[in-house]
Each structure stands twice: as structure tokens, then as C-alpha cells.
Amino acid sequence: MDNRPIGVFDSGLGGLTAVKELEKLLPRESLVYFGDTGRVPYGTRSREAVRRYASQDMAFLMDHGVKAVLAACGTVSSTCADIGQELPVPYFDVIGPSAKAAAARTKNKKVGVIGTSATIHSDAYRQALLGLDYDLEVYSQPCPLFVPLVENAFVSPQDEVTRLVAQRYLGPLREAGVDTLILGCTHYPIISAIIGSVMGQGVALIDSGREAALALSRRLEQDGLLCGSDGPRESSFYVSDEPENFTSVAELFLGHSVQGRTERIDIEDA
Ligand code: DGL
């Protein structure tokens, strides 16, 4: 048994899709969340910059005594695949679990992957998918405008701007006939209604934050690292810019208001 909290980080709000799943799967576990809202987006930055940011984010979580770290960020997961080796606690990213879920789900062996520019250019998803099944056909598409749209709450299923952008990005994947689409950026599930309706009913959407949360919860259970307390969950949320926007959009992600205070910290100095 281990009563320490689970640490989750992302460049911003997207990692909350993993938090939402962890809240469902492990209702007694406490969480520490860090959203690097002052430096979002990561997806348009150099590999070196993303690595430096991710190391700082993980150090911040470790200072809060976490028992495991979840990189709930497709960009960190794909561009810094080995970064978890720096840590003395179990580390999870989103690539392996989502690739596995997609390979198991596809029937026609045509899998689409959408993510930030950094994620798609890293080729990490294609390699992970082909490592699982060499017969898969993988179609990738960067969708750089999705993150700012989500961070600015353009997330309603009726939002015309987001729908138009989605039609432009997703058209080639639809034409390729993929039957499974990995939402390789953790921000994207919040606009899954739009993505799903543009792709069409027969296309399965794989939520990378959810798949990573599932893998993490299984591992904690297997390793006897779940908490033993019956007390209420105590979760803390930290951001690196003004908390107001985060708190209001976080409600859309989590389906409830953020309990407790969201604290602003200086990540460069943390
Ligand atoms: N949630 C991050 C990801 O999964 C957002 C990307 C970004 O900051 O550009 O890639």
C-alpha cells in the first residue's frame, strides 16, 4: 500500500482527460496535477525545449512526493521517450497504451493518428503501431490549431470554427478509410464530438489520456501501490500562469468543478 499521490502533468489542460479517467478508475487516490499553462503549447517547440520543460515538470511533481508520474502529454511522450528513466518512481506515457488499444481495435488495419506537429514529426506513434503489427497502415496528420482552440474553450460540439478546422485536418484521414483514430494529443478528447462527427460513425476514437490512465491504474494495482486510506481524495492543481482560465475550462474536461484551490507557481524556479 502506498498513500502518496499520483503525479500527472501536461503542457496545459489536456492532461485533465487522464485525470478524469483516474478519478473514475481510482476514486480514492489523491492526485497532484501540473499544467504548464504559461508555456503551452509544447507541440510547436524544439525537442530540447520540450525535454527541459518536461524535466522541470517532473521535478516539481517529485518534490510533492508522488508515487508515480504520468506524462499526460502526447508531445512529451513522443519526443522524449526515455525521459522517465530519470525518475525513481514508475513513469507512464501515452504512446504505448494508445497504440496497443488502436491495434486491438482496428478491423481494416488502417489507423489514423492526429497530434501536435512535434508528435507527428517524431514518428513515435507509427513506430509503436508497426512494432505491434507490421501489417498496419498508419496515416498521420498534425493538427496544430486544436490545442489553442481547446485552451480558449472553443469546445462546444456546435462550434463552427472548430468544426471547420477539423474538416480541413481530418479530410485526408477520412478519405484514406481509417476505422480507428488515435487522439494522440490529450487535448483532443474534449472536442471528440466534433472529431467523431467529421470522421463518421464507424470510426473508433482512441483517447490517449484515458488509455494511459488505464495502464497506470493496472500497474499500481499489480505492484500493490494503491492507497490504503478510506479518507477523501485530496487533489492539488498547479499551473504556471493565471489560474482563472484553467479553472473554468477544467470544469469542461472533468465534468465537475476543480475542488480546492488551483495554485500558480513559477516552474522555472520551482
Ligand atoms: N496535451 C499536449 C499533447 O498531448 C498538448 C500539446 C501542446 O502543448 O502543444 O501533446
How widely separated are the two ends?
29 Å
| Average residue pLDDT | 93
Question: Largest sheet, described in full?
Answer: 6 strands, parallel
Q: What is the highest CATH level, the class of the largest domain?
A: Alpha Beta
CATH architecture of the largest domain: 3-Layer(aba) Sandwich
Number of helices: 11
Small molecules bound? D-glutamic acid
> Pairing-aware structural class of the strands and helices?
alpha/beta
Q: Would you write up a description of this structure?
A:
This protein is of the alpha/beta class. The protein folds into 2 domains: 143 residues, Rossmann fold; 115 residues, Rossmann fold, CATH 3.40.50. It contains 11 helices and 10 strands. A 6-stranded parallel sheet has the order 4-3-1-2-9-10, with helices on both faces. Strand 3, helix 3 and strand 4 form a beta-alpha-beta unit. The chain is globular. The relative contact order is 0.21. The model has no long low-confidence stretch (mean pLDDT 93). The structure holds D-glutamic acid. D-glutamic acid (DGL) binds next to helix 3. D-glutamic acid binds next to helix 3.
Note the main attributes of this structure:
Rossmann fold; 10 strands; binds D-glutamic acid; alpha/beta; 270 residues; 11 helices; six-stranded parallel beta sheet; globular; 2 domains
Secondary structure elements and their pairing?
Elements: E1 6-10, H1 16-25, E2 31-35, H2 47-63, E3 68-71, H3 74-79, E4 91-92, H4 95-105, E5 110-115, H5 117-122, H6 124-132, E6 137-142, H7 146-151, H8 160-176, E7 180-183, H9 192-199, E8 204-207, H10 208-222, E9 236-239, H11 243-254, E10 262-264
Parallel strand pairs: 1-2, 1-3, 2-9, 3-4, 5-6, 5-7, 7-8, 9-10
Helix pairs in contact: 1-10, 4-6, 4-10, 8-9
The protein binds D-glutamic acid (DGL).
D-glutamic acid is lined by residues 10-12, 14, 40-43, 73-75, 116, 119, 147, 185-187.
